[in-house]
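Q: What residues go here?
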């Protein structure tokens, strides 16, 4: 069975199709999906959908491109959402210097503050880093003592050298559609080198559809393509890789593991 550790099924306009999208993923063997917020309303929608839908778990937090929408009191709201048994991480958080006129100072401050929030809540972090590897590493190093529950570099797209630095900090490395792209030689190297107990897979739906679906709206069932590419690159059997990633997901997200454990017990 496959797990999509990072999908945005919580855009308002996508909600009417959400049950269908999840059902199609389950038919493809994708039995668990972590739906990720990027601000307070999207985090609240992710929490609500996770409450309704057995396959869904969620992360709540402020994406670096949305930090200016954060108001006093919002952290309390995020914390309240994450008190749900299906709230598994603070995220996505991090740094994104891709666009012009980014407020780097505000992003850094919010990144550090949300690492602190994760520590206070006893949860891991889900990290977005785009065109900002040096500062992301610096903030993680400066806040290492607060990364008590670890975290994941979501949609990793950096160099093998950068990946090594994140691994040294105890982070998991999650691969998305870009690892299937034909010009992804650097990323191929990273996929081969990440230790098996630190690798994860995701779609980052609705973005970054994998080959050969590149350019289409991405959905969680497509995570199977990411698994297939990772298995081929690493010379592993698909099933063995899937079992390993499931183990990794349970180590990184203890609340997800506990919920599934309880569900199994509840169903005898
Ligand atoms: Zn994302």
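A:
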């Amino acid at each position: 069975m496959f797990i999509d550790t990072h999908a945005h099924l919580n855009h308002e306009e996508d909600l009417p199709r959400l049950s269908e999208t999840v059902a199609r993923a389950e038919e493809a063997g994708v039995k668990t999906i972590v739906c990720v917020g990027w601000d307070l309303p999207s985090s609240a929608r992710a929490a609500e959908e996770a409450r309704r839908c057995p396959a869904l778990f969620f992360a709540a937090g402020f994406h670096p491109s949305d930090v200016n929408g954060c108001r006093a009191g919002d952290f309390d709201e995020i914390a309240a959402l994450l008190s749900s048994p299906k709230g598994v991480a603070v995220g996505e958080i991090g740094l994104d210097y891709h666009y012009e006129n980014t407020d780097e100072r505000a992003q850094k401050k919010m990144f550090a503050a949300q690492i602190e929030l994760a520590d206070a809540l006893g949860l891991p972090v889900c990290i977005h880093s785009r065109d900002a590897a040096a500062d992301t590493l610096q903030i993680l190093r400066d806040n290492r003592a607060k990364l008590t529950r670890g975290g994941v570099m979501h949609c990793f797209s950096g160099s093998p050298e950068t990946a090594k630095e994140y691994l040294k900090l105890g982070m998991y490395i999650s691969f998305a559609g870009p690892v299937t792209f034909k010009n992804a030689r650097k990323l191929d190297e990273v996929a081969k080198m990440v230790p098996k107990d630190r690798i994860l897979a995701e779609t980052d739906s609705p973005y970054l559809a994998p080959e050969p679906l590149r350019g289409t709206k991405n959905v969680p069932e497509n995570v199977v393509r990411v698994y297939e590419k990772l298995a081929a690159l690493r010379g592993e059997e698909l099933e063995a890789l899937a079992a390993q990633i499931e183990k990794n997901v349970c180590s990184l997200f203890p609340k997800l593991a506990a919920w599934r454990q309880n569900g199994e017990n509840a169903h005898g």
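A: Context that may help when evaluating the design: The mean pLDDT is 96. The longest helix spans residues 104-121.
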